[in-house]
Amino acid sequence: MVRVGTVVRTLILCGLALTTLAFAKTNKDKTIVTYPSAFAVSQPVSDLPIDESIFATREMPEPRPVPLRSHAVAGPWQEDTVLQKENGPLVSATLGVDFDGVGAQNYAPSDANMAVGPNHIVETVNVRFAIYSKTGATLAGPTNITTFFGPLGGNCAAGASDPVANYDRLADRWVISDVGINSAFTNFSECVGVSKTNDPTGAYFLYSYAFGANLNDYPKLSVWPTATNGAYLATYNIFQNAANFIGADICAFDRTKMLVGTPSAAQLCKMTPNTEGGYLPSDIDGPTPPVDGTPGLYLTWQNNNPGQLYLRKLTLNFAGGTSTLSAPTVINTANTVLACGGCVPQTGTTQTLDTLGDRLMYRFAVRHFSDHDRAVANHAVQTGTGSQVAVRWYELYDPAGAVTLNQQGTFAPDTTYRWMASIAEDKNGDIGVGYSASSGSIHPGIRFTGRVPSDPSGTLETEATILAGTGSQSGNGLARWGDYTAMQVDPVDDCTFWYVDQYEKVTGSFNWNTNIGSFAFTGCGGGGGPAVTLVPTSLKWGKVLVGTSSTKTVTLTNSGTATLNISGITTSGDFSLKTVVKSCSTTKPVAPGGNCVIKVAFKPTQVGPRTGNLTITDNAPDTPQTVPLSGTGK
Fold it and tell me: For the chain, what is the total number of helices (H) and then of strands (E)?
């Protein structure tokens, strides 16, 4: 058993040193198999010290540019044929809660990112993270990320950058990752933590994957939980000796082994040519996993004329240590003009902000519907011969199959600059987009818009404000802003969008704040009444001795907007109900957003497979709700 803080620092496999495996980048047809250079188990996050320190002013290393052409063809500028110059209908979404997250401690930019689970929100920024309830109560942190990864030693304990948080819904686990950097900025690692339980404030399995002198810049991780070869996908822009771009690393971690804390969990990678970069990995939303055998999907934007998206597929074989990377599928899009760099104006200062317009913005979100899969992505573009910046967005159908571009648009209803966006899709096919907004007459603020399936194709509705900025970023020549943000869909109802971004409370530099806000479209979920969400949606027991009892629980949440009244809870087969402190009951109405617990006992009466159902009857539109129960008597 590995004790807390125990580290496995050296893994030599098949007679080859780890460094040979990690950095053999010259043969791009070869799968590069990397095993952890260190493994450890963290202390519970709730036991880690609160980080209230203020560091010396520091701008984090800027993301290196990826290979895009500013204008692909000579000749006159061509108009964006999907430019939306007017507002759509009134936004049909309603704002929920919003609260401030982790703030600056003299680092910039924020790298604001988050993951959302049934009861928690995990937010990561440079260089800290914190855990919140969905009402904004701080449950743990803010904690320094290097303290969290400290048991690994080496780069992961020395410096942190580009953090990403993920919630693995199918496993009910949390993933926190970042780039580990030595003090000389000459040696780099990818640091990954996977929670041991569904409690994000608990302990994590920690992994360090060495990249040596090659900078694994701007990493993005995602969850791709296929039944076999399920993976945490990853992408990196690789810079040899932290200087020369040599291609994108298209990678995947062995999720199955990481979930149980196996120290030898591998990372498989394939390199692209150095003409491609800025890929995003496919990140699953919703309760349905990808069809077993579906390869990992990776998307990037090439600023050709017309524009193009490149979609690659990585087929994985962790057991054999091999992978196959497809050639890019080219998806033609409307014409694009590369967004200007540090050009976003703010009121009260001549200092402008960076757009990071040379790449797709996190996330590449994929969701399964009854007859197809859909995916959404976005990036910043320039709207014309002037410098105004807007959000270009895409919806793809069947991204793992015969992919088609279903719709696209560029949202620029007025002269405000909009950039640093993130996009996702709910269970009804509603699309939510959050972004930063600024101009010469307003401070940078946080806004959102979206669309419902009945809206005209390629259009977004009138935007709404989550937070109006009250300061501008000014001083120290600092142009960096965001680097990325995150839009997530709540797994409880698959309707509520959560968005995190940065803003300034007062004008200054290295003093950003972050805000976490939510909204939902009125046609999704309860639609004005009560709605039931059950986690998990089925209960499975292993083998249980005949005549003995084993219990599991289901959490019921009222994800609607009116009180839920339960009229009956029953079980069938060899299953029965047990009373707990917060039991669901016919005498206890559940308020909107509230939850209760149903405890089910399995007591097999004979050997062999046993099945039954948990049935809840209430005043929600989809009553009754059923949870399949299964186990085996031995």
Answer: 4, 44
